[in-house]
Amino acid sequence: MSKLQKRYTTQVDVEEVLLDASNIPSFNRGRMEGKRELPIRKRSIRTLGFLFLVIATVFFYQIFNLQVVHGEKYRLTAENNSVDRALIIAERGVVYDRRGEMLVWNEVDESGEYDFPIRAYTDRGGLGQVLGYVSYPKKDTRGYYFRTDYLGRSGVELAFDEILKGQNGSKIIQVDALSDVISEYAIDAPASGGAITLSIDAELSEAMYDIIATSSAKAGFRSGAGAIMDVHTGEILALTSFPSFDPEVMADGDDIALIEEYNNDDRLPFLNKVIGGAYTPGSIVKPFVAYAALEHGVVSADTEIYSNGRLTIPNPYNPSQPSYFNDWRSQGNMTMREAIAFSSNVYFYIIGGGLPEIAVPQAGLSAPLQGLGITKMAENYRRFGMGELTGINLAQEQEGVVPDPDWKREVFNDDWRLGDTYFTAIGQFGFLVTPIQMLRAYGALANGGTLIDPHVVQGEVGASREIDLDSALLRVIHEGMRKTVNFDGGTARALERKDVAVAAKSGTAEVGAGNAYVNSWAAGFWPYEEPHYAFILMMDRAPRSNAFGATRIMGDVVQWMSVNRPEYLGIEVAESDATEAE
Prior knowledge:
By secondary structure, this protein is of the alpha+beta class. The chain has 2 domains: about 85-195, Penicillin-binding protein 2a (Domain 2) (Alpha-Beta Complex), CATH 3.90.1310; about 200-580, DD-peptidase/beta-lactamase superfamily (Beta-lactamase), CATH 3.40.710.
């Protein structure tokens, strides 16, 4: 059969190809007549097969790439997505007062903001600067800790940070695909920080704070501070600074308005004024000048000096313009004990700076008096620890200033004059001390000459150095300080009591432009016969007209102790009374 015949004989009708087409109700014979179906071309089949081959190749390559080439990497990634290692923040140590009262501890954060214990602080007032505060561990935006420890920022939290902070641990956390925790377990257990027991009586410190705060409002003082120290060990029994702040507010950092109020308060609530505030001491330095004058033979204890209310020093260059150095009142004739008790400025001008021959008659003397002079006076102040750090184990202590010719030349580029010595002898001029320096110095007067470093941890004994003091001369100073309290006209009469004998010295320092304001001080020790505790109390910047002084405020503190802590005053308490108090 020829190709032509074969070609034609293979032609078929539509009905032969689709025998059932006529049975389809919707079959349109007219539309289908003259048409035929053609076979799929081999080229199309090859193209389609090639596409399938390419897709399959890419698919299997990706499987190979994921499972073989990068399989280990993705396996580890998958494991890390389901199992993670997390930090366990260690609890910080607890802080107690000397009576076992918790002052700083840890609590669970009920707000859920922190996944570690937060610090809680006592509600007692006046302890903010002592206790200080912390900054908490911090996470970045991805949830990872970039600061893994609490950081002590001030006070005890800063000074004893290494003891209080613990050792962080770690744990394994397993989560599902929805990031829900399936299980967790510690692999390195955290170790809590060490506890600290302070030497401070928190309730006594709070009482002192409240008394200072109330008195400040009544008398117009800007601020105040006070402390009590064991003169044999250096333990600080009470320490407070007004105004104070809430440590929890600072640790949390959420109350922005209150924190801003703290920062803008010109009374400086963050400043621990006992250790970091430098103030003009005024007359509380007079017992130290008196001792040096006895030691160097300037006067005897019974030498009488007359004060008519001021000392007049003629001006050799201009006789019509003499220099006047005022006393705070006309004192009459005084020995050293009375001069301490009455706080005579004229007496201390003369034993400190001397008296030229031309001025001898007005002081009731028969000859000129040499005086200590600034060199010996400054050396004596420094011997008792003024102008240096005390070594207290709290941060941010200041050194203060003991003025001398070198200091004046450096600060004012001027020469030292007699009047500068006079003012330095009564604690004025450029003299600056911290309350803790004067507390330490009075401790040395009380214990016979041991200058001991104060500290706030119970059971420790501070480092010390000996000052070579003559007991007979020191006795004169003690007697003068006792007269300050129990003698008519003494400047610390508010501290006289029947239950304990107090030896003290008051001080009033003129400050501000035109000496319009005063700082008021009370310093001393008790019991007088066998000293155990020294005290310091400083009230800052009241109007000069104010007659409400620091000795009266300290008297209120001693009264509180006689009722609530009689053991500190050496008062024996009956067993029934002690049980009732508990």
